[in-house]
Specification:
- By secondary structure, the chain is mostly helical.
- Helices cover 41% and strands 5% of the residues.
- The strands form four sheets. The protein has a three-stranded antiparallel beta sheet with strand order 5-6-7. It has a two-stranded antiparallel sheet with strand order 1-2. Strands 3-4 form a two-stranded antiparallel sheet.
- It catalyses: Endohydrolysis of (1->4)-beta-D-glucosidic linkages in cellulose, lichenin and cereal beta-D-glucans.
Length: 564
């Protein structure tokens, strides 16, 4: 029988005429003939039964063929390594950890943490649960309500200025400006000290109150609150914040509200406080914009209603009522980091030169200011309460030094002599060290820092015990005149300081030595954070001026085409 071969030719199919045995013998003959040729491994697998196949020496992985021995060893090594790694991880997670301890905080960081606590003790109004001053409570919750002429019926909150219960907008605004300025420059240092949230909370408590003291939602205003409370005793004995000696929580006398209609410098300082705080709270867009709007309103009022609210006799010495030195340092910052060039360069260069001269006056080689035998610079020329000026100067000196370091400038000239930036930091350190106890009396003028500090701080709340007894206006006089230490320690309060002979009288009745203020403590906080951690953390060069538009002048249009 023939069939068609699809590859060409004929295909013969034999008829089925033999038995099975015959066919088997014929196939065996054919198989032996075929096996005379070498067969590959695949062909052999076709012929051998399942128990007769040769044992493979290779493993086909699809993309590559490897030796079975190598494959087994590789898998074993991987599994073994995995078991060892898992065992090590188990040990690491179960055994106790021994991380190297971070270095202990320096004295400036320790003092910073205490200095911030003073603001908690000065809070007015309804206190938050986390205030952490056990002897303080809610106070003066009727501020603004008893004065029918006040622009605001809710003046609750803010900070008491000093050892009394008066709320002055000018020094309070200065304090918030200084604190915000220090956060803008040194937020990383605050965070390293674990105090960034704390100081932001302190600032917001102050700015929330300042927003209440004028119509902050308006674009134009004609007056602002400048004071709540009264300390004038010239009219004879009358219950007020200076005549009475009472815990703020127990005050029951009237607290008048004082407004001003022509006080440009107060309005400008309030504007500075809100504007600087708007940068601190830049991540809170709604609140930051609210602060900016209030600052613009106040600045417009200050420009439209010019008048001198207060004055100072110390030219160029930074204080709550004289901002010239601080403004010059900020303008110098602008020149160093923005370099705006023409037409601003000439004016900025003048401010830079004035800042340099001011910094020269801090050096011991010059005689602009006297020093006590203990080394304290007399920026207020020997008058009482010197420390508030000293700490402000220490802050500016450290800051200017850091500005020059950030601008890769090794120093500056005082006349023909060149001085390195380190000498400014050394000046700041010696002054702050004096405040913290390196002085002839070995007295720390920061309450709660060290073991020897003032015990009779001029402060009503700290000097009267919290014993559920309400002492009236004159009833508290016995605590004022007591020779015993205050029953409550007002941690972090920097007192007014020593006299020009390094002398100090720890007497509650002598406020020129023992009274603290929020303006003074703000400067101390700024100086401490600037010095804390040494030079390990640089200033923030970019945030302060990040919203400043380009200051280069618009180029003039090209000249018209020439026509013959």
């Amino acid at each position: 029988m023939y069939g068609r071969d699809p590859w060409g030719g004929s295909l013969e199919i034999a008829a089925d005429s033999g038995t099975d045995d015959d066919r088997s013998r014929n196939l065996n003959d054919i198989d032996r003939a075929a096996l005379s040729k070498p067969l590959d491994e695949t062909q052999q697998s076709w012929l051998l039964g399942p128990h007769e196949q040769k044992k493979k020496k290779y493993v086909d992985l699809g993309c590559v063929v490897v030796s079975k021995k190598i494959f087994v060893w590789t898998v074993g090594i991987i599994l073994g390594a995995g078991l060892i790694a898992g065992f090590i991880a188990l040990l690491v997670n179960t055994l106790p950890h021994h991380h190297p301890r971070p270095p202990p905080p320096d004295n400036y960081t320790l003092a910073l943490r205490k200095a911030l606590m003073f603001f908690n003790a000065q809070r007015s109004g309804k206190l938050p649960k986390h205030n952490n001053v056990s002897w303080r409570g809610n106070s003066c919750l009727e501020d603004g309500k008893s004065d029918p002429s006040s622009i605001s019926k809710n003046l609750v909150g803010g900070y008491y200025d000093a050892g009394d219960a008066i709320k002055f907008n000018f020094p309070q605004s200065f304090a918030m400006t200084m604190l915000s300025w220090s956060v803008i420059e040194y937020s990383a240092k605050y965070e390293a000290a674990g105090e960034l949230n704390h100081i932001k909370d302190i600032i917001k408590w102050g700015t929330d109150y300042l927003l209440k003291t004028f119509n902050s939602s308006a674009d134009t205003i004609d007056r602002i609150v400048m004071q709540v409370g009264n300390g004038d005793t010239s009219g004879g004995p009358s219950p007020n914040d200076h005549y009475c000696w009472m815990r703020p929580e127990d005050i029951d006398y009237d607290r008048p509200v004082t407004e001003c209609h022509s006080c440009s410098d107060l309005a400008a300082e309030m504007a500075a406080a809100l504007a600087s705080a708007s940068i601190v709270f830049k991540d809170n867009k709604a609140y930051s914009e609210k602060l900016v709007h209030g600052a613009k309103t106040l600045f417009k009022f200050g420009r439209d209603q010019r008048g001198a609210f207060w004055g100072g006799q110390d030219y160029g010495v930074l204080s709550w009522d004289n901002k010239l030195a601080g403004a010059q340092v900020l303008l110098t910052r602008m020149r160093l980091f923005l370099s705006p060039g023409y037409p601003y360069e000439e004016a900025l260069k003048t401010f830079h030169n004035q800042t340099s001269i001011y910094m020269c006056s801090f050096l011991p080689f010059f005689t602009s200011f006297n020093r006590t035998k203990g080394g304290l610079i007399q920026l207020n020329h020997g008058r009482p309460q010197p420390l508030q000026y000293v700490v402000n100067a220490a802050f500016l000196a450290t800051l200017f030094s850091d500005y020059m370091d950030a601008a890769d400038t090794p120093g500056w000239y005082c006349g023909p002599n060149f001085y390195s930036t380190d000498i400014l930091r050394t000046f700041a350190e010696t002054q702050i060290d004096y405040v913290l106890g390196k002085n002839p009396r070995k007295m720390s003028y920061l309450v709660g820092f060290g073991s020897h500090y003032p015990k009779q701080v001029h402060h009503r709340g700290a000097s009267i015990p919290k014993n559920k007894v309400k002492y009236n206006c004159k009833g508290g006089w016995k605590w004022r005149d007591s020779s015993k230490p205050n029953p409550n320690t007002i941690v972090g309060a920097m007192v007014a300081g020593p006299d020009r002979h390094d002398g100090f009288h720890d007497k509650r009745t002598n406020y020129n030595y023992t009274e603290p203020t929020i303006a003074g403590n703000a400067g101390l906080v700024a100086a401490l954070v600037a010095l804390s951690g040494g030079k390990s953390t640089l200033i923030d060069k970019n945030t302060m001026f990040s919203a400043v538009p380009p200051m280069f002048p618009i180029p003039p249009p090209p000249p018209a085409a020439w026509k013959p």
